[in-house]
Write a structure and sequence with these properties.
Elements (H helix, E strand, L loop, with lengths): L1 H27 L3 H12 L7 H12 L5 H13 L13 H36 L4 H15 L2 H15 L18 H39 L2 H8 L4 H39 L4 H10 L3 H29 L1 H5 L1
């Protein structure tokens, strides 16, 4: 197992390496006039470095005066040390800005993951146990609707109903106007209230796929020979489902979750922007549309690293839920 994980870790490093090379090469293939245009625009903003300083910073971070491969390795050495340059939009180091906002995204996505897991998996199992019943059809219809809804449409509808019409929640932001005047639990409640609609949006977008995935895999397991044997031995249906069927359903679910986690952070790029939550998604969007090249480069690389880390965790979870992986 140790050799297997080391091999997977080496593969992940290669993927991140070549993915970063592609992103860097794409950046380098942009016309030189674009960099000059952005540098002029950024230098004209209040408290911004001069045009020459911005071009020098670009030259230092991305080695624009060398070829692509030399420039990439120079950029890589700085990136490994955690130096991605200064954000043009925010005027501080990119990594520092990332540390300031990442906890909002982690908090939002962890809550979303818990909500959709505790809703989707039980409903998917219930639909599989009652195949072709009204419950099964209802779960299927709800999941297909959830899969089909675009993020911006769903968020707009939820804000219109619960914020504009009912007035239960604020349209934007992570805290209210009187946040600083509240005590500790008041601040917690205020932030939780502002996260209801974003969590609901992200959860509804992912619940459908997870329900369908759970139902399909549970149906395959329930038709297996060892499940019929367990029933023939007189075991109760709950024991058959919870102890025998569900454990083997976890194996494909681990694969699904390995892609779900990075997709949630990428998806929160839109959700955070629509609700103006100051997480990494919203901050990255705001930086990218204002031509903040250092922050854009950093965000793309982080998404690649997050994807590979998720896949490595999935490989580890295979060994936890399936003893055959440990034996091999």
């Amino acid at each position: 197992m140790t050799k297997y994980f080391l091999r997977r870790l080496i593969y992940a490093c290669f993927i991140v390496f070549f993915g970063s090379l592609i992103v860097y090469s794409t950046l380098r293939l942009l016309p030189t006039s674009y960099f000059e245009k952005v540098a002029r625009e950024r230098s004209s903003a209040p408290n911004s470095p001069s045009y020459t300083e911005i071009l020098n910073q670009l030259n230092k971070v991305y080695s624009l005066d060398t070829n692509i491969f030399v420039g990439f390795f120079n950029w890589g050495k700085n990136a490994i040390r955690g130096d991605f340059g200064n954000s043009w939009e925010y005027g501080i180091p990119v990594v520092q800005k990332f540390k300031e906002v990442i906890w909002y995204s982690i908090f939002l996505n962890v809550i979303t993951l818990l909500v959709q897991t505790f809703i989707s998996i039980p409903l998917g199992i219930l639909a599989a146990r009652k195949q072709y019943s009204k419950t099964d059809y209802m779960v299927t219809i709800v999941s297909m609707i959830a899969i089909s809804l675009p993020t911006f449409f769903l968020a707009t509808v939820l804000k219109y109903i619960f914020s504009v019409k009912l007035g239960w929640f604020d349209l934007y932001g992570i805290v209210g106007c009187y946040y600083d005047q509240l005590d500790f639990w008041g601040k917690v409640g205020d932030m939780a209230k502002h996260l209801v609609l974003p969590v609901l949006t992200l959860s509804m977008l992912n619940i459908g796929g997870l329900m369908r995935y759970t139902r399909t895999n549970m149906l395959e397991v329930l038709n297996a020979d060892y499940i019929r044997t367990a029933r023939a031995k007189g075991l109760s249906e709950d024991v058959v489902i919870n102890r025998h069927a569900f454990r083997n359903t976890l194996i494909p679910l681990v694969t699904y979750f390995s892609y779900l986690i990075p997709n949630m952070f990428a998806g929160s790029f839109i959700t955070e922007t629509l609700y103006q939550i100051p997480g990494i998604g919203y901050i990255s969007y705001y930086a990218i549309i204002h031509g903040d090249i250092p922050f854009a480069m950093f965000y793309l690389v982080i998404i690649m690293i997050l994807t590979q880390v998720s896949l490595l965790i999935a490989d580890f979870m295979y060994a936890v839920v399936d003893p055959r992986v440990r034996i091999n």
